[in-house]
């Protein structure tokens, strides 16, 4: 039962990310690159999530939602509680051209990944047991599934 719920949350979060990252720029930018890479960090036992991620990428590409632009998913597997491994794999994804990072699901390692993404102004979709958050710099808006409003941090309030 929990796997089905996690899968639904993952698909909802991934769809939201695609809409935010990729569909909005189509309206404001005249051209997109031929290929857009999205990275995901999965724990070694998350094979179903890898399949869902690949399927989601294929669905976007098959439907020509982005015109001639194709999505490419970059998957890296990380140890569940190894922050160093998560940091190293995050850097690898970014070096390979990922414009956004999804995961990992461990709260501790996800914070490390989020910190790297914040520093480099790379959107980070955080999927942990408490819910789904999406942090996109420079606006730093967090979206939580089930909420109807963005959560604003004190730091964001200073920048308004």
TrEMBL record:
Q: InterPro entries in the record, alphabetically?
A: ANF_lig-bd_rcpt (IPR001828), Peripla_BP_I (IPR028082)
The answer to whether keyword Transmembrane applies is yes
Domain of life the protein comes from: Eukaryota
Q: Start and end of every Receptor ligand binding region domain?
A: 54-129
Where would you find the membrane-spanning parts of this chain?
A: none
A GO CC annotation given for this chain: membrane
Subcellular localization(s) per the UniProt record: Membrane
Q: What is this protein called?
A: Glutamate receptor, ionotropic kainate 1
């Amino acid at each position: 039962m929990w796997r089905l719920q996690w899968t639904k949350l993952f698909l909802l979060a991934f769809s939201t990310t695609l809409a935010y990252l990729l569909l909005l720029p189509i309206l404001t930018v005249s051209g997109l690159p031929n290929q857009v890479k999205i990275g995901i960090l999965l724990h070694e036992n998350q094979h179903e999530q890898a399949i869902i991620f690949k399927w989601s990428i294929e669905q976007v590409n098959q439907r020509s939602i982005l015109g001639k632009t194709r999505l490419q998913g970059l998957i890296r597997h990380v140890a569940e509680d190894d922050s160093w491994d998560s940091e190293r794999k995050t850097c690898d994804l970014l070096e390979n051209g990922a414009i956004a990072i999804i995961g990992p699901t461990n709260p501790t390692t996800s914070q490390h990944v989020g910190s790297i993404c914040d520093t480099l102004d790379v959107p980070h979709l955080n999927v942990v047991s408490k819910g789904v958050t999406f942090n996109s710099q420079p606006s730093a808006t967090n979206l939580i599934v089930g909420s109807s409003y963005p959560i604003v941090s004190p730091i964001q309030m200073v920048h308004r």
